[in-house]
Task: structure prediction
Amino acid sequence: MNTSYKISICLLMSIVLWYLPIPENMPIKGWHVAAIFFPVILSFLLRPFPMGAMVIFGLLALMITGTLTTKEAMSGYGDTTVWLVVAAFMIAGGVVKTGFGKRLALILIKLLGKSTLGLGYAFCGAELLLGPVIPSNTARGGGILAPITRSLAETLESYPHKHPKRLGEYLVLVSAHANLITAAMFLTGMAANPLVVRAAKDVLNIDFGWGMWALGAIVPGLIGLILLPLFVQLIARPELKDTRPAQKQAAVHLEQMGAWKQSEIIMGLICISLIVLWSTKLFHGLSTTLVAWIGVSLLILTKTLSWDDIIKNHSAWDTLIWLGGLLAMASSLKDKGFIDWFAANMQAMVGNFQGIYVVIILALIYFYSMYAFSMLTGHIVALAVVFFGIALSVHAPGMLIVPLIAYFSNLCGCTTNYSTGPVIIYFSLGYVQARTWFKVGFLMSLFHLAIWMGIGMAWWKYLGWW
Result:
């Protein structure tokens, strides 16, 4: 399907929605925002142009038609969560440039890599350490850990088309699914997580910040990471047990890297400081975004990053464009009355159910609807606000639906081999066949549901969230 055909589909959808009879009790501008917003979401699946470009086209359409003022359309770019993500991408650039992230992964492999299970825990540990400070799960998984995964597999004579089950299949599955768990554990674990936070604030007036996000995820997340290598070993058992050659290779790579460089030490100290400050906001009162930019400033002052590094961080500025624009459009759906209308209609459909049952039903639908999406961000933007609106309309426990949607926004990526960047990268290594990925993905979904809707909900009950 060529670009012109894809863009024609999006335009046709927008025109049809715009000129359809406006539903009863629906504000005109609310309907017109939706008529442009949903084709933009469709464009994320069809990919006629990059996400940032399509968001700009959508904002232009909203302004040209008079649906939004220029100030309303640009409002998302002043949101603090957008700048939190931009800062986190800058910090991630330092983690990669200094070699700090790679060294952490190799150290863990050297310490734990005597067996296939140990290697699995090494990759889980690396994800856990890097998750809070690298907001791009693609950069974390695909950029740092996927190359190491492949290198270790090939060292032990496991190749995509020759002995993939010897080790490669197991390592790829553990690494890919560990990436999704750590993306779920931290607000800064995946670039689009702030979209959930903003939706929760706009619709339910719940401030689900960095500390609360991490607090709710720490117990189910750690249990998931502890059990993941064992679970994958049960459903995709590796043929190789002794992986000491991989351990030796990690030691060789560490030796080649030499002693800790000053830039790595500074990077490590800044990362530790950020995590401590983010976790103790209750005591010092500094906002999460302010702390992140203090970290960026320290990287510049210590010359760990140059100003050229900052301005050449394409991922950061690209995210600024699409995330800020999406926040503006998503907020407009609420401000112009679309969400209130939708919630009122959904209330009539689910009004006979008790709040907690509605939450469970919505969470399950949200999780498995990921089969129809090819990007976690598109899934969040299309459904999170709507599902929060339904929960609000039936008076469901807000502090139960918010964490479920927040964490499931990442965990649902387990279902397919096309759900998010790092999953696509791991799948493209060739060690896991598509049929196997879908089978493992469904079993993994049951694994996540059991932990997060079982242990997780019990933990949130203990915290007094519901």
User: Anything to note?
Assistant: The chain has a mean pLDDT of 87. The radius of gyration is 22 Å. The chain has 23 helices and no strands.
